[in-house]
DNA sequence: ACGAGATTTCAAAAACTTCTGAAAATAACG
DNA sequence: CGTTATTTTCAGAAGTTTTTGAAATCTCGT
């Protein structure tokens, strides 16, 4: 009846550790905008040594075939797991990238591509809407409006529009610059083959 | 009747630019795990010069009072906007942090605190479950378990489990180290008063 | 201490996301 | 080819998050 408590670290303990890890990773995933199941599958593949097939995943995590199939495909698209074919076996197997630096680089690469770049493009468009320089039609707007002593308004939009547009542009530009900076930083990290990231770590320790 | 097309960049254009900005920021927010409305309110406050009150926000973004109230409070909790009291006015006004570096620092600080640290704690717990050194109870486990010939199940685990636990620990440790590294990086960035981030930007340009 | 105005709370509704399961498509083998 | 194993797709179900609005609570000024 009783479980053998003799074995150093029992299979049960390993199983438990895996399950807890999977749960933790799944939770983290969901707070960062990734579906829980997808993160859990990734966790399972990462923490497990051998490659697993769709049925293994379904069984282990109790998810439907459809869900497993779509999540696995999405993970492949993100480049954090890969398909493996075994001869004499019609099933497909999956295996996680096991180098965590490569994994991180891949995640950053994809987030830049899918999320940051589109937003940057939008923000540039927005910038153009009020860009004085681009005001080819209408009339070119002087960057600096005349005298700058402003009577502080009462409620929200108080003054007779002293220079709302200039203020808008200033704020937008500062945000654009920040995001572009982060983008360049990311691209650099992502670009440099292999070493790139460890380099960042090194830098980190340097900046006392 | 017709709108004056003479003014350089019309109020309408400003309004449009604001709306587009708000939409873009709202979208970005939702892909990063922040509710759309919350991100939109932040965008509105950021892009608008003066402080706004709850009714301004409700009106401008067409959201309910309850939603506006909760989202504003959440933004205050995140430390990216602040409450403003005006004498002789019973309403509360809100204003966004306008320095984007400070804003970024604040966001990183909170994400570390709310999301990274809890996961790190969980991962450490998981690590302990299979830590040979920590096996005080039971029996100290030799890093390499004796002869471990186990009848292999059917599919996934092919080899005779030479050292599943050691492999598990290796993977878990590499992930833990990565996350801790990022955590330290974040803390450092967040900690250094003001300059911290620009410094990072400088570093960035240095790393050719 | 009252009352008017402002804010917060929270249960229920709406909107959105994820998951399922069976049917359709695909690929492998003989 | 036809048969069979496997994967993909997708409409609807289930689950989760977000939003609403009205009631409760709070805050001041008098």
Query: Which residues of chain A sit in consecutive blocks of at least 5 with pLDDT less than 50?
Result: 148-160
Which range best describes the helical content of chain A: under 10%, 10-25%, 25-40%, 40-55%, 55-70% or over 70%? Answer: 55-70%
**Strand-pairing-aware structural class of chain A:** mainly alpha
Could you say how many structural domains of chain A there are in total? Answer: 2
**What count of helical segments of chain A does DSSP give?**
7
Biggest interface, chains and residues, is: A-B, 72 and 73 residues
Biggest sheet character of chain A: 3 strands, antiparallel
Q: Averaged pLDDT of chain A, please?
A: 84
Radius of gyration of chain A: 26 Å
How far apart are the termini of chain A?
58 Å
Shape of chain A: elongated
Describe this structure in words.
- With 208 residues, chain A is mainly alpha-helical.
- Chain A has 2 domains: 87 residues, Winged helix-like DNA-binding domain superfamily/Winged helix DNA-binding domain (Arc Repressor Mutant, subunit A, Orthogonal Bundle); 94 residues.
- In chain A, helix 2 crosses helix 4, helix 3 crosses helix 4 and helix 5 runs antiparallel to helix 6.
- The longest helix of chain A is centred in the middle third of the chain and has 30 residues.
- The first copy, chain A, is elongated.
- At the A-B interface, helix 1, strand 1, helix 5, helix 6 and helix 7 of A face helix 1, strand 1, helix 5, helix 6 and helix 7 of B.
- The structure holds a DNA duplex (30 and 30 nucleotides).
């Amino acid at each position: 009846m009783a479980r053998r408590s003799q074995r150093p670290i029992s299979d049960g303990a390993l199983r438990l550790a895996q399950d807890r890890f999977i749960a933790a990773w799944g939770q983290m995933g969901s707070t960062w905008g990734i579906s829980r199941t997808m993160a859990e599958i990734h966790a399972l593949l990462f923490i497990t040594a051998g490659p697993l097939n769709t049925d293994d995943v379904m069984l282990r995590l109790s998810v439907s075939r459809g869900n497993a199939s779509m999540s696995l495909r999405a993970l492949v698209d993100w480049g954090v797991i890969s398909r493996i074919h075994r001869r004499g076996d019609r099933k497909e197997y999956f295996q996680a990238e096991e180098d965590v630096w490569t994994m991180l680089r891949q995640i950053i690469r994809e987030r830049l591509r899918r999320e940051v770049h589109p937003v940057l493009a939008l923000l540039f468009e927005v910038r153009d809407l009020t860009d004085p320089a681009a005001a080819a039609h209408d009339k070119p707007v002087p960057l600096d409006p005349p005298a700058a002593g402003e009577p502080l308004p009462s409620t929200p939009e108080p003054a007779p529009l002293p220079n709302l547009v200039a203020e808008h542009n200033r704020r937008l530009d500062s945000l654009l610059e920040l995001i572009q900076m982060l983008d360049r930083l990311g691209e650099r990290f992502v670009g440099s083959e292999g070493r790139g990231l460890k380099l960042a770590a090194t830098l980190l320790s340097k900046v006392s």
